[in-house]
Give the backbone structure.
Amino acid sequence: MTMQWSRLLSAQRLGHRGAEPVTPSRNPFQKDWDRVVFCSAFRRLQDKTQVHSLPESDYVRNRLTHSLEVSSVGRSLGAQVGETVLQRHGNGLKDITAAEFGHIVAAACIGHDIGNPPFGHFGEATIQHWFRSGPGAELIAPLPEQQRRDFLHFEGNAQGFRVMTRLQNWRDAGGLRLTCATLATFMKYPFGSLAADPAKGKFGHFAAETLLFEEMVETVGLSRLGEDRYARHPLTYLVEAADDICYSVIDIEDGFKLGRITFAEAEERLHSLLRRRPPRYKEIDDETWKIAYLRAKVIGDLIDQAVDVFCANETAILHGGFTGDLMGQSPMAPHLAEIAAFTRSRIFQTRERFQTEVMGGEILTSLLAAFCDAHLALEKAGDIVVISPRQHALLRLMPRLPDPAADRYDWLLSVTDFVSGMTDSYALKQFQRLRGLQ
């Protein structure tokens, strides 16, 4: 089944009936962006690891600044793609302009990391490992397979969908009530944990959000690719491209600012991504401004290339038959691969980073163990009065007092919600208090 742009751009909000009108002054997708920016989970990204955990320089990016930059790039990608789509299919897209495409992609981009736990992808891997071979393995053993896999492959992407559709509102039936177009564009992996690739373990929603996922899929009309698997929303490829562009280019700039790569190394790699050398570059004397100027020019070039690849493959994308990613099929793909290998060895694999990861692993496993132990005691006792004073105090630290009758899957989710929602600094403080160090 070919996906239709008229459905893919649905302004219907999750949990609502009927689409919101698209008006020029402030369309529903702009409101989506605003709702994400003003929620507490987004604010916490200012103290969550991007590449450098608790960095020594306040210049380098954190998750919040990265999300803003990705959203800016995504808006440009969406608007440019929108112009071509409207030229090809404009007759069936009433009241939609190229700007709406940009607003949808920007809104999906601004929330693309909102479900990431403390300490970046290392934190995500630590939570997975705790449930696979740590004390968590026994806790999830009695659960049905899909619920077990939710924890075995704990996913920041699925947590992000949960944050936006359930946790960030006083009512959980739709959460922030974002449009289905934005939510579907946000979802990089449109399937649950049972359909995830065993090797990669990536998926887009937990079992708890299955009904919300199905409502979203039905509204925008994603193509079914198999049992419980769907094709991506076409604009999701632009979210991925925006993220890839920012990672590739900005890691170079941050690495230079931190002194981990030289000016010559940064300049050479940024020049390799340009179709031509900018004529005004020679007018700049300061090395920091030179790198910033090149970064801006490279981002502009890569945006154009991503748009070209998308438009050339639009038919395959709408049929759900496109494989890979946009930047991987761009002319600069070999240079981007070389930069990824370079930054991995020179920026990511450092002694300081490994020391931070050791600390982060100790913090997260201790927090998971403490809060799960308290919930397990409550489950067995059935009454908060009976459990130990320490366990009682731990449960009082939760955002809301747990229900003794809650089933295990639900209270395990509440623990991962709490721990993954912490900032790096807050997780460290909670760990220190658990150990009696503060």
Notes: The chain has three domains: 5-116+145-230, 236-348, 351-434. The first helix runs from residue 5 to 8. Residues 192 and 205 are 5 Å apart (CA to CA).
